[in-house]
Amino acid sequence: MNVRFVRAAGALAVASTLAACSGAEDFAETPEAAAPIAAGEAELFGTPSARWQQRFDGTNPSYSDDYASRLLRTPDGKLLAFGSLAAPSAGGASRGVVVVAKLEPSSGAILWRRDVPVAAVDGDSLALVRGAAIDRSGNAYVASLGGQVTSVAPNGAVRWTVQAAAIADQLVLMGSDVVVGTRKGLEVHTQGTGSLRATWRVPGGSVSCLAVNARGNLVAGGAQSTERGDVPWLASFGTAGQPRWTSNFGVAAGAGCRSIAADGAGNVLIAASAAGSVAVSDAVFAAVDDAGALRWSRTIPGTSTEFRNAFAVTPDGSGGAYGAYVGVSGATGWFTSPSTRTVVRLDATGKQLWAKAKGGSFDSSANVAVAHELALDPLGNVVVATEGVVSKYAPTGALVNEVTVAKGSGNSFVWAGAGETFVSATVSGSAKAGTDVLVSRYAF
Fold first, then answer.
1. Cβ atoms within 10 Å, residue 139
2. Residue 38 — very low, low, confident or very high, per pLDDT cuts 50/70/90?
3. Domain ranges of the chain
4. Cα–Cα dist 254/79, whole Å
5. For 281-316, what is each residue's pLDDT tens digit?
6. Mind listing the pLDDT tens digit for each residue in 400-421?
């Protein structure tokens, strides 16, 4: 299971209902063709070039901040794109929707698109997508930051929508349930109807990480704020919801878990940050087994002029792990300082096999620092999606290819197959102000 951790910045305030989106009557009768890449846009793409691209935009001409999110492959071989779009303002508050679109991978044609308004929470709505998954039947599940959880059928019909009791940060499928990580713990909803089946308590704070290991047990991770600072934690639950163990995976203090992934042996791989001994923070990768015992831990320290965070981790078939962390100098300011994104390959014991660093300016045109997501293709190549740049590394660590998705790009996410890579990125708006969601296919 590859972890696709969602880190879109910002939030959309919305006030709406699902009354207009309960059925499938507004589906396109025929697939919507992907937009051809105009000659004038050639400077936005390096080598390899995009085979096709689709742009999703909100409807407000004066304010339209739309954010990309996950890309997943369906059981029938199609592509599902998730994101959030701004809708027309009402009473000075911007409304938003979660968008789910099914695409034909070969051509980019939109087979159907569903815009789901997000219900209000304490007067506001937060439509940013925080987690998405697809079950074996092709049903999709998506959670927004405001706590709304929606299931969409393979034909695009909305199956059900429920509201969690708190802000949501993650979602994962476990057996016949949907587990949602919120700021108040874990909510367990049935996949069939969305009804709330149980709530599980966690040590505290937000649940930023969720994974189900090979033995069917759930592992959640996050950080609890205390007088001593943020205390990281992991907590495991059995298939019936019984608490199994808790762990701090060898980290005493810091920002806690950022991303986790389960391998085929029942271990859980962790990407985290910890309080640095010299710098603001260090990057940490670790692995715990099904009993919660720490198998290994590797710290990549920062220096006196930077902080580092481990942003993403994903397993390979041999039990090793790929990870990415970021180091940003604080010397000249956040938006103009030099930055370094480093891709690391670790083996099953945590030993570092290779590390590849890439420098650049931490700004809106070439932000190589923040690695939002990693993906592995069937040949073991690792694809890294950062803010504006997507890079592919061979199993040996050699850089195979790299492409700038778009200038002014924001968070980006990837799905990698054999000889093809799909990218969803937040990019500067075209016809309207703000940002758009761009989905592209690259043959590399």
1. 19
2. very low
3. 215-371
4. 37
5. 788 889 999 999 999 988 888 776 677 778 888 888
6. 888 888 766 667 788 888 878 9
**pLDDT tens digits for range 69-79:** 899 999 999 99
Contact 219, 235 (CB under 8 A): yes
d(C-alpha 51, C-alpha 444), whole Å: 11
Total Cβ atoms within 10 A of residue 45: 17
**pTM, full prediction:** 0.84
Strands (DSSP E) contained in 164-217 are 168-174, 177-182, 185-190, 196-200, 206-212
Q: Residues with Cβ < 8 Å from 131, sequence gap 6 or more?
A: 6, 142, 143, 168, 169, 170, 171, 172, 180, 181, 210
CA dist., res. 275 & res. 133, Å (int): 32
Q: Are 375 and 397 in contact (CB under 8 A)?
A: no
DSSP bridge partners of 58: none
With CA atoms as reference, report the closest residue to 63 among 117, 26, 14.
14
Q: Which residue has the tokens 């997943």?
A: 72
Q: How far apart are the C-alpha atoms of 279 and 263, rounded to whole Å?
A: 31
Task: Return the H-helix or E-strand segment holding 228.
Answer: none
Spatial CA neighbour of 376 closest among 349, 345, 330: 345
Residues 6 or more apart whose CB falls under 8 angstroms from that of 40 comprise none
Rounded CA-CA distance 183/330 in Å is 30
Tokens of 243: 């608490």
Burial (CB < 10 A; 0-12, 13-18, 19+), residue 244, is: middle
Provide the H-helix boundaries in 8-160: none
Over residues 336-357, mean pLDDT: 81
What is the SS3 assignment for 39? helix
Which neighbouring-strand residues pair with 126? none
Given a contact cutoff of 8 angstroms between Cβ atoms, the answer to whether 374 and 271 are in contact is: no
Q: Regarding beta strands 373-376 and 382-385, do their DSSP bridges make them parallel or antiparallel, or are they unpaired?
A: antiparallel
Q: Is the pLDDT of residue 430 over 50?
A: yes
